Amino acid sequence: MFPNINYKIYSCIGLLFSSSIIMAQVQVSEEPMHRNVFQNKYIRLLDVWLQPGDTTQFHIHSTPSLFVYFSNNTISSQIRGEEWVKDQSESGKAWYRSFSPGILVHRVCNLDTVPFHVNDIEILSSYDNKNLSGNKLLPFPLLFENEKAFAYRLTNSTIYRKIIEGRGPMVAELVTGDGIFFHDTKTKHEKEIKAGKYFYIEPGASFYFTSSAGEINMVIFEIK
């Protein structure tokens, strides 16, 4: 089905013939390769790593979710009952899917020779921001906006020292780059944000970002 790939990678497609895998069906938060690394009343953050040749179990997406790719990979996905579809992940790509009115039941295979890394942020609750800054945009380039969230892109040319306050809960996802710091103006503490990692920002926080040097690619999600 997928020519010119080695046996190790092709073997994950062979799992199609395993009845135990076909019958397996769990919520995405319970799928072993979707690690729950952070959860509160607003979000559940699933950190997903697939090694070359690995395939997830069939799992169910039924909660509005935000996604961001951290790696460039050749992957394939299969909706339950349908054929495999080959795709390419793009580092830094971010998107939203409501999974309403229909849920998604699928599995994913890494056809590449390098690990596949993506974050899935399930939105568990909206944020009551009536006493805060409302739905004004942050001073960063807007990637998209919908009924659940804002998404922004930060680069070395758009990150600058500007205090942000009175906002909803946020997740900063540093795709690439070094020397990015979060500065809390209330506590006077600072925290370095690492490439390939997430950083949760509490609602109502007062903060700004700085960058020491070099190219950065960071995505910020804000829950409405």
Overview of the structural elements:
This protein has 224 residues and is mostly beta strands. It has two domains: 117 residues, Jelly Rolls (Sandwich); 82 residues, Jelly Rolls. Helices cover 6% and strands 45% of the residues. The protein contains two helices and 18 strands. The strands form four sheets. A five-stranded mixed beta sheet has the order 1-4-9-6-7, covered by helices on one side. A five-stranded antiparallel beta sheet has the order 2-3-10-5-8, with no helix packed on it.
Number of helices: 2
Shape type: globular
Could you say what the CATH architecture of the largest domain is? Sandwich
Please give the oligomerization state of what you see.
Answer: single chain
Summarize the structure.
The protein has 224 residues and is mainly beta.
Secondary-structure blueprint:
Blueprint: H1 7-14, H2 19-23, E1 26-27, E2 34-39, E3 43-50, E4 59-61, E5 65-69, E6 73-79, E7 84-89, E8 94-97, E9 104-110, E10 116-123, E11 142-145, E12 149-155, E13 170-176, E14 180-184, E15 190-193, E16 197-201, E17 207-211, E18 217-223
Parallel strand pairs: 1-4
Antiparallel strand pairs: 2-3, 3-10, 4-9, 5-8, 5-10, 6-7, 6-9, 11-12, 12-18, 13-16, 13-18, 14-15, 14-17
Q: What key attributes describe this structure?
A:
single chain; 224 residues; mainly beta; Jelly Rolls; five-stranded mixed sheet; five-stranded antiparallel sheet; 2 helices; 18 strands; 6% helix; globular
